[in-house]
Specification:
- By secondary structure, this protein is mainly alpha-helical.
- It contains seven helices and four strands.
- It has a four-stranded mixed beta sheet with strand order 1-3-4-2.
- Strand 3 (about 245-250) and strand 4 (about 255) form a beta hairpin.
Length: about 325
C-alpha cells in the first residue's frame, strides 16, 4: 500500500508538471499566433500601400509624358512660326552695305535734285482729302519699270498716307481698301461663324497653324476638343484630306483645315505680318519696293481666294 501511494503521488507530480508545461506551450503558441497575425496584417497593408504608390507613380508619369508631348508639339509649331518670321525678316530687312548703301540711312548719298526738296521745299495743295499723288515722302510719281509694272496712283497715295503714320486701324483708307478687296473675300468661308472667329484671331495675331502628326506615340491622351475629323475641312465643309489644323487663341479646340483653306489663311497672315513689321520699323526700304511687296502679298491673297495654292510635298 505504501508503495502504491508513493507511486500515485509520483504520477500526480509528473502529471502536474506535464500539464504546467502544456499550458506554457499553449500560451507560447497563442502568442506566436498573435505575432503571425500582426505580421500578416502589416504585410497586407504594406503591399496595398506599395501597389497604390506604384499606380500613382505610373499615372503621374503618363500625365507628365502627355504634357511633355503636347508642349513639344506646341514648341515645334512655334519654331516653325519663328523660322518663317526670320525668313521674312531676312527678305524684308535691308541693311546698308558699302556695295549697296541704303539711301534712307545715308541721305548724303542722295543727288542734289533729290536732296534739295528736304530743305525749305513747298508742298502743293491737294483738292483731295487723301494724301496727294505726289507725296513729299516720295518726291515723284513712280514710273513704269522694265518688268511691266506700273503703280496705281490712287493706291500709291493711300499707301504713302498710311506709311507716314502706320496703324492697324481698319478704317484708314489704305487698310479699308485691302480689307474690302482682299482680306474679307479671302477669309470668307462657307462656315460663317468659324470664319469670323478666324478673321478675329488673324487680326489679333493669336491664330496657330499646326501640322497634323502622321504618327501618334503610345501615351495617355490629354483631353482636347476635336471639332471635326481629318477628312473634312472645318471652314469649307468639303471632304478633303487635312494635313493641318488651327487653334484660336488659348483655346484647346482644334479645327482641321484643307490645303486650300490653309493657303488662304496663310496669305492673309503674311500680309498682316508684313504691315506689322512696317509699323514696328523693321522694314527699312524705300517706298516703292515696300509698295510692290504689299502688292505682291495682295496678289497672293487674290490667288489663294481663287483656289491657286502651292502643292504640299
Amino acid at each position: 500500500m505504501e508503495i502504491r501511494e508513493k507511486g500515485s503521488e509520483f504520477l500526480k507530480e509528473e502529471l502536474y508538471k506535464a500539464q504546467k508545461e502544456l499550458k506554457l506551450k499553449d500560451e507560447e503558441c497563442e502568442r506566436l499566433c498573435k505575432v503571425r497575425a500582426q505580421l500578416e496584417q502589416e504585410l497586407e497593408e504594406l503591399t496595398a500601400s506599395l501597389f497604390e504608390e506604384a499606380h500613382k507613380m505610373v499615372r503621374e508619369a503618363n500625365v507628365k509624358q502627355a504634357t511633355s508631348e503636347k508642349q513639344l508639339k506646341e514648341a515645334w509649331g512655334k519654331i516653325d512660326m519663328l523660322q518663317a518670321e526670320v525668313t521674312a525678316l531676312k527678305t524684308l530687312v535691308i541693311t546698308s552695305t558699302p556695295a549697296s548703301p541704303n539711301r534712307e540711312l545715308h541721305p548724303q548719298l542722295l543727288s542734289p535734285t533729290k536732296a534739295g526738296p528736304r530743305k525749305g521745299h513747298s508742298r502743293q495743295k491737294s483738292t483731295s482729302s487723301l494724301c496727294p499723288v505726289v507725296c513729299p515722302t516720295a518726291g515723284r510719281i513712280p514710273t513704269p519699270d522694265k518688268d511691266g509694272k506700273e503703280v496705281d496712283t490712287t493706291l500709291f497715295a493711300e499707301f504713302q498716307a498710311w506709311r507716314a503714320s502706320p496703324t492697324l486701324d481698319k478704317n484708314c483708307p489704305f487698310l479699308e481698301r485691302v480689307y474690302r478687296e482682299d482680306v474679307g473675300p479671302c477669309l470668307d468661308f462657307t462656315v460663317q461663324e468659324l470664319s469670323a472667329l478666324v478673321r478675329t484671331a488673324v487680326e489679333d495675331n493669336t491664330l496657330t497653324i499646326e501640322p497634323v502628326a502622321s504618327q501618334t506615340l503610345p501615351t495617355v491622351k490629354v483631353p482636347t476638343v476635336e471639332c471635326n475629323n481629318t477628312n473634312t475641312c472645318a471652314l469649307s465643309g468639303l471632304a478633303r484630306t487635312c494635313h493641318h489644323r488651327i487653334r484660336l487663341g488659348d483655346s484647346d479646340s482644334h479645327y482641321y483645315i484643307s490645303p486650300s483653306s490653309r493657303a488662304r489663311i496663310t496669305a492673309v497672315c503674311n500680309f498682316f505680318t508684313y504691315i506689322r513689321y512696317i509699323q514696328q520699323g523693321l522694314v527699312r526700304q524705300d517706298v516703292e519696293p515696300m509698295f510692290w511687296e504689299i502688292m505682291r502679298l495682295r496678289k497672293g491673297m487674290s490667288l489663294a481666294k481663287l483656289g491657286f495654292f502651292p502643292q504640299e510635298a
